[in-house]
Amino acid sequence: MALACTLGFKSNDDFNRSLQSEKTDNHIDEFCPKLNIENIAQFITLPPYADPAQYMKMVNDNVDRIRIQFLKGTTTLAFKFRNGVMVAVDSRATAGGFIASGEVKKVIEINPYLLGTMAGGAADCAFWERVLARHCRIYELRNKEKISVAAASKILANMVFEYRGMGLSMGTMIVGWDKRGPGLYMVSDDGERISDNMFSVGSGSIYAYSILDATYKYEMSTADAIDLARRAIVHAAHRDAASGNIVRIYHMKETGWEKIEEKDTNDYMYQFREDKTMNF
Amino acid sequence: MGDDIMSYNGGVALAMKGKECVAIACDKRYGVQTVSERLRFRTNLYELREQRKLKPLVLYNMLTNLLYERRFGPYFVYALVIGLDPKTGETYVFDSDNIGAISDNVNLATVGTASDYIFGLGELFFKPNMNADELFEATSQALLNGVDRDSASGWGAVVYVVEKDKVTVRELKGRQD
Fold this sequence. Notes:
The complex is a heterodimer of chains A (about 280) and B (about 180). Chain A is built from 10 helices and 13 strands. With about 280 residues, chain A is an alpha+beta fold. Chain A has a single domain (about 75-280), classed as Aminohydrolase, N-terminal nucleophile (Ntn) domain (Glutamine Phosphoribosylpyrophosphate, subunit 1, domain 1, 4-Layer Sandwich). In chain A, the strands form 3 sheets. Chain A has a 5-stranded antiparallel β-sheet. Chain A has a 5-stranded antiparallel β-sheet with strand order 6-7-8-9-10, covered by helices on one side. In chain A, helix 6 (about 120-145) crosses helix 7 (about 150-160), helix 8 runs antiparallel to helix 9 (about 220-240) and helix 9 crosses helix 10 (about 265-275). Chain A is globular, with a radius of gyration of 23 Å. Chain B is built from 5 helices and 7 strands, in the order H-E-E-H-H-E-E-E-H-H-E-E. Chain B has a single domain (about 5-170), classed as Glutamine Phosphoribosylpyrophosphate, subunit 1, domain 1 (4-Layer Sandwich), CATH 3.60.20.10. Chain B is α+β, with helices and mostly antiparallel strands and about 180 residues long. Chain B has helices at about 5, 35-50, 55-70, 115-125, 130-145; strands at about 10-15, 20-25, 80-85, 90-95, 110, 155-165, 165-170. In chain B, helix 2 packs across helix 3 (about 55-70) and helix 4 packs antiparallel against helix 5 (about 130-145). The relative contact order of chain B is 0.23. In chain B, a hairpin with a 3-residue loop joins strand 6 (about 155-165) and strand 7 (about 165-170). In chain B, strands 5-1-2-6-7 form a 5-stranded antiparallel β-sheet, with helices on one face. The radius of gyration of chain B is 16 Å and the shape is globular. Chains A and B meet through helix 10 of A and loops of B.
């Protein structure tokens, strides 16, 4: 090929055409371009009305006797402690009053050292965190090092900021471990991105916060942290109508995340009633 | 129309007929207060005046009347009435919306936020002329499994089985989420 090139020989078969098409770093985006406000119409069918957020809200209440209620309502939580980050979520998806599913996976495994949680619109969270996974992988390939939690959460926040006001509903926590140690960011659909030691997102978060605030200590042991996370979800599942079914717990460590458990909240509720830590 | 206010507190009830027995079951979300007090007042007065116990049909008509009195500012309740005549063994199951619509004496009735799901299960489990035990099983299974599909119902259940000589109350262990 080098000889043919030097001699100015231009062949037009597939292999040579692909060599000639300048597949450099910058152009990779042409084959899988980044979604932004200008090229959005190529990827997502835009709605035929002016203000999507307003329309969605109306449809959620009642428009011409049609009422579409999106899958929302949840309890998710995550907190940093001495040995990493503990993440716990419930598994219920409700559409209005109807329980559409009791087995939703609300922790999205972006890659072996990054986790994202799902709260708000199920479709919105699942889709955009998958796009985030793609960006993280490309970063890894280009830079030969893992992406930081700060950068990953910033990519997600910037992506959803482009759609601000269009009715996305997403309250997610990005959890990971990078060279700065454990990382925990909360990113929401209005473009908010904040870092702190403890977050809970969703309709049941108010109940989870009470349990967390009561016994949280940074110096907790791993076993205590698992117990605290579990109890917070179980209490929220009891009181919040839109949360319940299964509790899933993940532990983010230096070596990546580990799935701790996936159990029925109802069994825990009866167990906690037995040892008098819960009343009903 | 009054959809949101009716599902604000949530809750559900189911009633089924058997052979000379009737069962009514409800979840344990919140109790009904004002309407039951006012109905209790009227039934007490009736029993004092007439010097005899109320028949099921009379209770039902009283209740629907009470509800219709508030036609233009209704109570936010759904109603189910069951009854058994201890002499003849005749069974009654009626339901009503929140403004007192009268229904026929039916085999199976459900009301509440999870009523659609419980109707499906109830129709499946119902058989004509069940005895008290079969009736209890059918009612409880229909209710418990139905409320697990509704976020606004649950927290356990109570089932009353009314027979000619006794009323059995049982509390069911349900999902607490």
